[in-house]
Amino acid sequence: MSSGVLHQPVSLPANQPKQFYRGGEAIAALRGGKSGDFGPEDWVASTTTLFGRSDAGLTTLPNGVLLRDAVEADPTGWLGADHVEKFGADTALLVKLLDAGQRLPVHCHPSNAFASSHLNCRHGKTEAWIVVGTTGPDPTVYIGFRDDVPAQTVAEWVARQDTRAMLDSLNPVRVRPGDTVFVPAGVPHAIGEGVFIVELQQPTDFSVTLEWRGFLANADIGHLGLGYDVALDCVDRHGWGGRLEKLVHQTSEKWAPSVDLLGHDADPFFQADRLHVEGSFTLEPSFAVLVVLEGAGRLGELEVRKGSTVVIPHAAGELGLTGDVVAIRCRPPVLTAVSAAEDVRP
User: Fold this and answer.
1) Would strands 179-183 and 258-260 be described as parallel, antiparallel, or unpaired?
2) Cα(250)–Cα(192) distance, rounded to whole angstroms?
3) Which CATH number fits domain 10-250: 3.20.20.140, 3.30.160.20, 3.40.50.300, 2.60.120.10?
4) What is the pLDDT of residue 254?
5) CATH match of 258-343 with 1.10.10.10
6) pLDDT in tens, 223-249
7) I need a labelling partner for 200 at 20 to 30 A (CA). Which of 110, 224, 287, 293 fits?
8) CB of 228 within 8 A of CB of 158?
């Protein structure tokens, strides 16, 4: 079998591991495929597995090789020498299309430090959402506690499974296409029904599910096998009510060949820009994931259209994106930002 070494962009089929919540119609509408009842997430160019699973979630390239194995066989070709020096054969990125067919539970994700200490992993799970579609009368996300919450109160909510208290404690934000939400590790959150996003995240499937009843089979799944007495230590219990502007931004009015969507706070974790191509635009060499939202054109020699998801190896070099296209480009962390963030860790 081929080693999977590819130096050109690769168009990928949908990759929708079964989840515990409903959704998927918006993914099917974008990509032109069929919707499954519990296929609300399309894991694009994934080298990450579902928590506790050995292979579910991994992307298989058209030549039959797992992307994870291809990257391990040629890390410099896929990721570039500077990235490999920092992360090895680790893309440091997971991109998803996520279509919430129902409200997701209140949950949060561990930080790098917590994941390193308790889960034997260098990555936590900071994430960001780029809203690309909404349905229904009230598309809403819930982000961060309104006010500071004592640890004992959070523990009591989880023990009683007090859904109302947990949801009411969060900041509801009505969203529309073009909104972006940066979700630092630890910040509790939920995504409401009818919200369709391109999600960037660190490459793990670590979730501490505060509101597990009605979503998960049992509480053990919700605490990553750590017990809630340990797992809840990762929750950011600070109030975000007066500073949501640090997390939520509207970008739909911004129109340029490349619009930065997430800002510098996201740089240590990932990068995203929205490309508006009318004619041609040159992409610099980088490992990247491209999600085409509108139009049609070519990326180098590869035809792309609305719904295409493409993984781009660093070794593809400079590439011309031509045609009439709107796309989200997702890339790994800015290496200088990673270094700066690590330098100031206590």
Assistant:
1) unpaired
2) 18
3) 2.60.120.10
4) 87
5) no
6) 999 999 999 999 999 999 999 999 999
7) 224
8) yes
At 133-183, the pLDDT tens digits run: 999 999 999 999 999 999 999 999 999 999 999 999 999 999 999 999 999
- 209 strand-pairing partners: 107
SS (H, E, C) the chain: CCCCCCCCCEEECCCCCCCCCCECHHHHHHHCCCCCCECCEEEECCCCCCCCCCCCCCCECCCCCEHHHHHHHCHHHHHCHHHHHHHCCCCCCEEEEEECCCCCCCEECCCHHHHHHHCCCCCCCCEEEEEEEECCCCCEEEEEECCCCCHHHHHHHHHHCCHHHHHHCEEEEECCCCEEEEECCCCCEEECCCEEEEEEECCCCCCEECCCCCCCCCHHHHCCCCCHHHHHHHCCCCECCCCHHHCEEECCCCCCCEEECCCHHHCCCCEEEEEEEEEEEEECCCCEEEEEEEEEEEECCEEEECCCEEEECHHHCCEEEEEEEEEEEEECCCHHHHHHHHHCCC
Q: Are 308 and 32 in contact (CB under 8 A)?
A: no
Q: How far is CA 3 from CA 64, 74, 157, in A?
A: 10, 9, 50
Quote the tokens at residue 127. 């994430």
Amino acid at 260: D
